């Protein structure tokens, strides 16, 4: 098992280096010269100034050398300076990350807690009303555009009915709870701020449901299909022939096998959450990475986009690594 | 039923009485009903896209600030937006770009990916290894984020966005096509064709490709909805289209803060939802039709 | 209406373990209601053994599943009764059913590869129902579980108990399945084709276990199989099924010697036998079983029956007592008469003298290793040693059989000889030309002369082409027809040659049965007038009767067209019936080669001895070979068979060469002929006197 983990880690590191390479290439093969864009028309018409700028930003060096510099910067945690905020990109990311982590984690848990039992129930009572409902729900979940769903929720439950608080992580006039993590739920408990906890939780409800919608759909579908498949396997018939109770067959024999594809999907689901977070946070004015991505994309803030892509890709790699490892825990055939 | 036979007694190994077999019509409806509905939705939207200039009541870009943000009425079925443009007319025109972008990305992505996948499977060896590592590399990015980065690098505009999506789109088709072609390669009828001395090109065209098309068609159909969603998403983020052009994603973006004037954002989003549902229904139906084993999964 | 009511009452006071009366099970399908089991009755007393035999689709497996009510959703038991020790099984409530299943009645299924849950440890799967039925507390159950594994002959049972299923071979898994089946000492064990997925030497081991369980613990056994030989080696009585009905029920030995239903008669005589005259034609009946949706009004076998009388077409025969303790569903034998023996077919002309001409197809020291894809970037590449130095020569007009168990490299050999694979070392010569490394383009002109027939009739025809397109393709590709019209005429001829109607050309493969598809496959191989045909297990996927039809066809074609066959098979009896010469393969090498008649009469290599004796034929003395073939990933040193050989000695550490030990006979053994099976008392001795199958 240790060797397996080691191999996986090494592979992930290799992929991360390759990913950085791809991102660097994207950043440097932009059509249009970033120098011209920054200097303005007058300065750009003077070849001497242009040359000095090129030298200053290292643009006169060959591509592989620039990649070396980029990589060295990366290893020192230097992702460049954001054009829009004039701050180091890494600082920005550090500031916005907790909000997204909090939101994505809640949404992820929500989709597991709803999706897996729903998928099991739909498979066990196939073609029954639970199945029909689960299928309709998952279809809507994966088909509805996240940004629209976010808007509709806000329009109905905040604008229309007034049941939910408005956009943002907390009430606009409240102070954010103090604490070491930046996760408001944990920080408010940490500092004993009960009102802050309630406020944060209330603000989390709508965005986490919106963010989880597509993932719930995916997990329900996959669980259902995997359970149906698993329930048709010979070993289920053998278990029936053993005279085991139907629930024992479902939970002890069929489910562990069905979870294997569901866990594989977990990684994909997480990627969905990260992508969905861009839309959800934008609509809910959620001060997280997603909104940062949106503002950076809207402002064509290139260093920021590169930085986010890199961070998100590495997170994605780590999630996939975790998926591979839990895969090995679930399925003895993978361990070797 | 050829003989009088009471099938209503007994059950699957459980002798519970009176479990009547569902009627044939009901089972067929259950199996293919959604596919027909999905096909209807898709065809309707394609017609709308083609006929938009003739069926929309107003010009999509006709600005009239005197009637801005009017709620839905008989004159403006879906109300007007911040510039007083008719939401309904813009929605109909928006179908053109959304559908065109979806079809372009998926069809080109499928063509590129399938070619790469089949070639990889057929050549094996180093080329196969290199191509598959490349797909691994692309697949290790969350697709929308990578597309976002590329689209941002290329600049705003539908063509650039489609190009960016293509970059992240082909690998899944390459994966599937390669897996299918590998299965085909070891099929006995392909071996038989080799033993008969047929040329490789003929074997690929006549024996391997036709038998990989079914699953690919299913993925293409299911993916059309996906591509439309992604394109709308990128447009929502401001990358897909340059402002006056009507597009569903950017229409939602324009109305996203207008919680009181919900119609500006609600209707374009609903349009996306129906198209995606339509393609999903079609894809599921196609899969059931091609693979009887997956029926009603 | 059914003869079942006239069965003589049992003399004992105890009710039989299993009593089935007029069982009827249907499938609800889109096309209509399929009557899969349509009136089956039998009883099994305590400690008795009963076989159920029939071809695929006869309803035998559905019967087995109905007994434990393990049917799928779309199946319904619509009539009859099943009594277990007098208890009505069909009336049991779910909880009663659960308490009964796995406790008093157990079942073992066909495919051991999928019957075990891949993510649970073996021990848990063996013991969970001991605990759930309240037989023992978990700790005690675990001990019993290990004991059961040991009893079933699982190697290193303690370690095996803690392992997962994927670490075991099919044979070992079936032992585990048997352990699961008998964990609670059931009074009844139902085994549905338990050995079909296994090799013949492993099959012999499992059948031995079944017999042992019956003798040792008095477990009543219902064994379902398509193979009368398998049934005869375990079961005293047998029910023969056809088209959902029981058509004959009698002592196994009686059915084998003197079948009273024409279908049973066909079944008994279609199987090639090791004691039949060499080259004899097999008895086969034409046609196919009736469409289960449109069953004939009279006897269901009437359309195919060689003995039918007028009454058969109009009146459906009931199960009638035709002799004491024997029942058959037939008007012809209703008065107690026997069916005639099949006419002894003429022995075909002796094969052409093969020494005169140089061999048509020849392999010299052929080697093929497959490099497995690496598990990861850093793992060492593993190699499958599929073929490890094979010398073989196929003469003109000859049929040469290659036999061996799965994984012995015989299919790879076929693909090397037809150059679907490129050899790692050695050479392949066809018509004197070296084609070992010939390019596809260089091979193309030779291809027509060297053709191949494949194993799986469902996979070897492109599902998207009509039979006509499939057959026209090679003719046009090689310019064998002047025009499309001429090519189409040739297709018609080809279809007639293989016994199909020319009109079938416009149909797609899925419209045909397995046997018909295999005929199309043969027609395709013949389209280019080949000299040699390599046939890779051409009949192993077919039911015995269809198998006999196809083998007869291939034999006719050989005589008419002067073909040479290289015939790959795992079934020794088939090879013996079909081939002039036989080569036996083990672990990628030929261990023995010689004339078919002599090899089967007096095998020289210990492996051949074990192989021939493992065939489940009633009355044969059996050598049950222990162990399983070693992995092809790492070849053993010395003689490859050493580890399983009953007469291995120190000298066997040296690999034995394949050398001529008698005129025309070669063997790769240091002590050829040393191992001859000792005459041991055969358990089913009463069968020995009867005419075998």
From TrEMBL, chain A:
The chain crosses the membrane at residues 103-124, 136-158, 200-219, 258-284, 304-330. Gene3D superfamilies: MetI-like (1.10.3720.10). It is a multi-pass membrane protein. It comes from the Bacteria. Residues 97-323 form the ABC transmembrane type-1 domain. Keywords: Cell membrane, Membrane, Transmembrane, Transmembrane helix, Transport. It is found in: Cell membrane. Belongs to the binding-protein-dependent transport system permease family. PANTHER family: D,D-DIPEPTIDE TRANSPORT SYSTEM PERMEASE PROTEIN DDPB-RELATED, DIPEPTIDE TRANSPORT SYSTEM PERMEASE PROTEIN DPPB-RELATED. This is ABC transporter permease. It comes from Plastoroseomonas hellenica.
Automatic annotation (TrEMBL), chain B:
The chain crosses the membrane at residues 34-55, 99-122, 134-156, 216-242, 262-283. SUPFAM superfamilies: MetI-like (SSF161098). It comes from the Bacteria. Gene3D superfamilies: MetI-like (1.10.3720.10). Pfam families: BPD_transp_1, OppC_N. Keywords: Cell membrane, Membrane, Peptide transport, Protein transport, Transmembrane, Transmembrane helix, Transport. Its main location: membrane. Residues 95-283 form the ABC transmembrane type-1 domain. It is found in: Cell membrane. InterPro entries: BP-dependent_transpt_permease (IPR050366), MetI-like (IPR000515), MetI-like_sf (IPR035906), OppC_N (IPR025966). It is a multi-pass membrane protein. Coiled coil: none annotated. Belongs to the binding-protein-dependent transport system permease family. This is ABC transporter permease.
Automatic annotation (TrEMBL), chain C:
Keywords: ATP-binding, Cell membrane, Membrane, Nucleotide-binding, Transport. It comes from the Bacteria. Residues 18-268, 361-612 form the ABC transporter domain. It is a peripheral membrane protein. It is found in: Cell inner membrane. This is ABC transporter ATP-binding protein. GO terms for molecular function: ATP binding. Gene3D superfamilies: P-loop containing nucleotide triphosphate hydrolases. InterPro entries: AAA+_ATPase (IPR003593), ABC_Ni/Peptide_Import (IPR050388), ABC_transporter-like_ATP-bd (IPR003439), ABC_transporter-like_CS (IPR017871), Oligopep_ABC_C (IPR013563), P-loop_NTPase (IPR027417). It comes from Plastoroseomonas hellenica. SUPFAM superfamilies: P-loop containing nucleoside triphosphate hydrolases (SSF52540). CDD domains: ABC_NikE_OppD_transporters (cd03257). Pfam families: ABC_tran, oligo_HPY. Its main location: membrane. Belongs to the ABC transporter superfamily.
